[in-house]
């Protein structure tokens, strides 16, 4: 992947987007930009902005488009993202956001959009058992907890269930995904930017699958 490549990872909540986006960012040495992480950091800081964001997040609702676009604009204008490219995780989530992203970026917007595909029954199970480190965001599950069940193996932070992983918030987030985010799949397909990757199975295998699909597709683009 050449420096400056801009990728988006799409997928339902619980598809493994966050975990895989972190790994891809490490593999390609580009910043991982997660709007969920940015909002969770704002909530932890206790700022007014964080308090407002938290109301939407805890209810499983989307933070308003203009607020999210402002946050992303600010992050992507930083040198690391401008020079090295980035992997966007959790953004765009609506067609409005995707259009705004195209306007923010020079040279025709992002190069590639990966849809990490996992059926709803599987994500429901994963979300109910998901646990996360409040400090560094590392994901665990009831089946694969950290060695000390409440302490993160990576940074020692507290490992908890996310506030928005309650049954009603999960249901609402999946509903919003179908309504607002799923249409982006067809939107990016029409622009010939979409690659679909099967997100089921061992996380290491999914990472290898993603890297193969991305490299193949970017090479094809470079040869064209
Ligand atoms: P995530 O970690 O990506 O599931 O995001 C957690 C929560 O942050 C979401 O349920 C939304 O409330 C909010 N959020 C994150 N990204 C966006 C976005 N692109 N648009 C609107 N709300 C967002």
Name of the CATH architecture = 3-Layer(aba) Sandwich
Mean pLDDT: 92
Q: What is the CATH superfamily?
A: P-loop containing nucleotide triphosphate hydrolases
Q: What about the largest sheet?
A: 5 strands, parallel
Unreliably modeled segments: none
Taking all Cα atoms into account, the compactness measure Rg is 17 Å
Helix-strand pattern: EHEHHHHEHEHEEEHHEH
Shape: globular
Measured as a percent range, the helix fraction is 40-55%
In short:
The chain has 224 residues and is α/β, with parallel strands linked by helices. It has helices at residues 17-28, 35-45, 48-58, 65-76, 79-84, 95-104, 120-129, 167-181, 183-190, 203-223, and strands at 6-10, 32-34, 86-89, 112-117, 130-133, 139-141, 159-160, 194-198.
Question: How would you describe this structure to a colleague?
Answer:
With 224 residues, the protein is α/β, with parallel strands linked by helices. The protein has one domain: Rossmann fold (3-Layer(aba) Sandwich). 52% of the residues lie in helices and 14% in strands. It has ten helices and eight strands. The strands form two sheets. Strands 2-3-1-4-8 form a five-stranded parallel β-sheet, sandwiched between helices. A hairpin with a 5-residue loop joins strand 5 (130-133) and strand 6 (139-141). Helix 1 crosses helix 10, helix 2 (35-45) packs across helix 3 and helix 4 (65-76) runs parallel beside helix 6. The longest helix has 21 residues, at 203-223. It is globular. The chain binds adenosine monophosphate. Residues 13, 35-36, 39, 56-57, 60-63, 68, 90-91, 93, 97, 164, 173 line the site of adenosine monophosphate.
